[in-house]
Design a protein that fits this description.
Chain A contains no helices and eleven strands. Chain A has strands at about 5, 10-15, 20-25, 30-35, 45-50, 55, 65-70, 75-80, 90-95, 105, 110-115. Chain A is globular and about 40 Å long. With about 120 residues, chain B is mainly beta. Chain B has no helices and twelve strands. Chain B has strands at about 5, 10-15, 20, 25, 30-40, 45-50, 55-60, 65-70, 75-80, 85-95, 105, 110-115. The termini of chain B are far apart. Classes of the chains: A mainly beta (about 120), B mainly beta (about 120). Chains A and B meet through strand 5 and strand 10 of A and strand 5, strand 6 and strand 10 of B.
Chain lengths: ~120, ~120
């Protein structure tokens, strides 16, 4: 079974520029998550999708971050405009279960550096 | 609101010795508890989880964790450490009461485990 795919793996941009990340979850996984992991910290949930609907985006900075999951499969996360504090690894994860007890399967992440 | 704490930034153990990585949590309802491991340049991998039942949970790579309700802890353990166990370990908690945005999964800050030969 193929794992969660993310691209690009690395991205360097200047502040105020825009950037987009792509995630392809494991086939058949209904739930998709985007996390932000700042160096030295644990992952912080940005947004959770159930199929193509948003379940939780309470920690997503909506003035600059947006995400979509068209057709309930692939997802993109966009930052516009980027700030220096957005430098982090952005992790995508998926889960086959709708409920709370399911483990998550993580992609390798995209390392974003904002200069 | 739920929270999780990993009090040790780093744990150093000699190969062959037992290891413990500590985790304490706070939730309003029944906890769902998880351990994940992160190897360099790789995503997090699921190790084990506690939902209900036996307090001792066994997981991947010979790891186990003990749920202690009175101490609100979920420490990760392994009887005999391997050099290949060296990685970053994350404890995570979810409030099992209800299915809403209030029950999101929260990760600890991570503990770096270093196993010396």
């Amino acid at each position: 079974e193929a794992g969660v795919a993310q691209s690009p793996r690395y991205k360097i941009i200047e502040k105020r520029q825009s950037v987009a990340f792509w995630c392809n979850p494991i086939s058949g996984h209904a739930t998709l998550y985007w996390y932000q992991q700042i160096l030295g910290q644990g992952p912080k949930l940005l947004i959770q999708f159930q199929n193509n609907g948003v379940v939780d985006d309470s920690q997503l900075p909506k003035d600059r971050f947006s995400a979509e999951r068209l057709k309930g499969v692939d997802s993109t996360l966009k930052i516009q405009p980027a700030k220096l504090e957005d430098s982090a690894v952005y992790l995508c994860a998926s889960s086959p279960r709708r409920g709370l007890s399911g483990e998550q399967y993580f992609g390798p992440g995209t390392r974003l550096t904002v200069t | 609101a739920q929270s999780v704490a990993q009090p040790e930034d780093q744990v150093n153990v000699a190969e062959g010795n037992p290891l413990t990585v500590k985790c304490t949590y706070s939730v309003s309802g029944n906890p769902y508890l998880f351990w994940y491991v992160q190897y360099p340049n790789r995503g997090l991998q699921f190790l084990l989880k506690y939902i209900t039942g036996d307090n001792l949970v066994k997981g991947s790579y010979g790891f186990e964790a003990e749920f202690n309700k009175s101490q609100t802890s979920f420490h990760l353990k392994k009887p005999s450490a391997l050099v290949s166990d060296s990685a970053l370990y994350f404890c995570a908690v979810r409030d099992g009461e209800g299915y809403s945005s209030a029950s999101k999964i929260i990760f600890g800050s991570g503990t770096r485990l270093s196993i010396r030969p």
